[in-house]
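[Automated response] Your request has been received and processed.

Submitted sequence:
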Amino acid sequence: MKRRVARGANFVAAAAISAAVLYVAFVGAGGLPALGPAFNPSTEASCR
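Generated structure:
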């Protein structure tokens, strides 16, 4: 019985985190600034 409850809690937690990630991906993060060239491979800033 405890294993079933743990699996259910794990599913609920995974679904909530997935929903939060999808929400931020589709709606945007609001007031956060853009990352700019930090992850642009052509500027090689990520390799320094």
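Summary generated for your ticket: The radius of gyration is 18 Å. The chain has one domain: 2-47.
If you did not submit this request, please reply to this message.
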